[in-house]
Automatic annotation (TrEMBL):
Signal peptide: none annotated. One of its GO terms (molecular function) is methyltransferase activity. The lineage of its organism: Eukaryota, Fungi, Dikarya, Ascomycota, Pezizomycotina. It comes from Talaromyces rugulosus. InterPro entries: SAM-dependent_MTases_sf. Residues 29-46 have a biased composition (Polar residues). This is Methyltransferase domain-containing protein. Residues 1-103 are annotated as: Disordered.
Amino acid sequence: MDENEHSSTWQTQARNEAGADDAQMADTIVTTIDPQSQQQQNPTDIEQQQQQHEHDESRSVAQDSSVDLADTLPPSDYYYHRADDDDADSALGDDDRASSTRSLTESVFNYEYENGRRYHAFRAGAYPLPNDELEQSRMDMQHHIYLLMLGGELYRAPLDAAHLRRALDVGCGTGLWAIDFADMHPDTHVTATDLSSIQPSWVPPNLHFEIDDAEGGDWMFSEPFDYIHIRSMAGSIGNWPQLLQRAYDNLEPGGWIELAEFETWASTDDNSLPLDSAYHEYQVRLGEAAAVFGKEMNVAPQIRGLVCDAGFENVKEDIWKCPLSPWPQDPRLKELATYMNLQMMESIEPYSLALFSRVLKWDNNRIQSLLAYVRQDLRNLNYHMYSKMCVSPTAFIQKSYDESMLILFAGTAYMPRNHMPPSEIGDK
């Protein structure tokens, strides 16, 4: 889109304000990320605060000499182990795991800093979002939103705990989902992978984390999994068919894969979001930058088709609407929307900062100016924006040349699609 094709309301206002001196411009254009406050800050101040927040080592409990480490451990009646124990991997039976996906080296922690945010070092540049404390807090809040959307459940797939030996969480982030899942299924060996080592040190004994790139090469796990969980990977994956093929190849016959994504682009049922709004401009620019970067940002609408194309069967997709601001009257939706609004206020910068600066070549002041107006749109309750959350629990049906072979899932008989009599094969 040509920047000069139209003159939007927010752009006109920004140009008018640009005639003021720098201090006045900073006071009128750039706002904070707090949705409850109208206090405004200079972009430079925001960046300095983020840097100070990131480098303030005294905030770490592990490094605070005034805190007894024993006070930070889980209750004594619930055993956790250190994720970096030397015997953790061997105890869990993955001795033959490829060292490229198991070993931690000093280089993993040589983080890169850009525009006041911290980014991963392993496979540097592969993932456009930061991994600093601000981003970790946002991911934790997003985990809470998923729980609210799913009624407190961690997953939708009809898992059989008695036959759930191994589970994999791809792109685990801070590890909250994996920890909760491991707690829920103590007899299941849970593996969780991510590009960044930002997970807690004390975890359930049946869980271990690995620094790995899901797109970095063939998966080298020692055994296949009964359940694979992939969530919030929009903007992270360049080749979704390849990722799902690897998941397919590493899933036990009769196993399940579950994907969960929010649509990146906001929707309205009443066209209340103007096309010349800052939020719409943000979405257009983010889509352009992500396309050049080579990683699809709005992948949620494609999930069902992608998993079907990968060869999975019994594909089920659940879709829910999640308001982006507390405009609904329903108390439950308003509570959900309040959390989502806070998460959105925090997410628009990490999703766009690297892409706008590296791909669009915008300077930080220009980025922060647009984001300030985007936050104003997120506070505007007249904009009835929502995002659709798509969850696809999908079964992998065992391939067999025996046409009499039926596999039961949730009380329903399925025959491998490729081996159905031609007269019984129809569109699904």
